[in-house]
Amino acid sequence: MEKKTIRTIIIILAVLIQVSFLAVVFPQYNVPSIALALVVSWTIISGFQQIFPWIILLGFFLDIVSFQTVGINIILLVMISYFVSFFSRRFLLEHRGWGTLIIVFFIIISTFFYYSVNVFIADSENALANISLGNVGIQTIVNLILFLIIYFPLKKIEEFLAFYDRTVKIK
Question: Which domain does 66 fall in, by range?
Fold first, then answer.
């Protein structure tokens, strides 16, 4: 029960901060995505299998609050989570020293994909004009900062919740 409540609160806070605060502070095509940083963090911490339903809920809330077609963010975030999960299991376990660079690579690729698809959907006529290296670069840097801000507290919260999921077996 606690796990569901805490994760739901995290999702609602992330969506509200992204839509109400970051959308006002940053220009239209440079709004960083807390949802993307949250999905990458959760996928690295918990894995795709455990976090899949929460990604759907996050994408649904983001679609509703940002007045987009319902399902767009769900599909994008699930695809990004699967991508991160698929490659993180292989690379992070095999190459422990390269973990940080691999995570940065995940953020860069995920940001470019998420940004490009959202810009194309929002303004398909001028999409190529709005996708520039400067816009993607700024958004990538801010998403990396958001990832660092989100990852460590989220990891502590997930460890705290995992502690209470354990059961004691007495023989």
Answer: 2-158
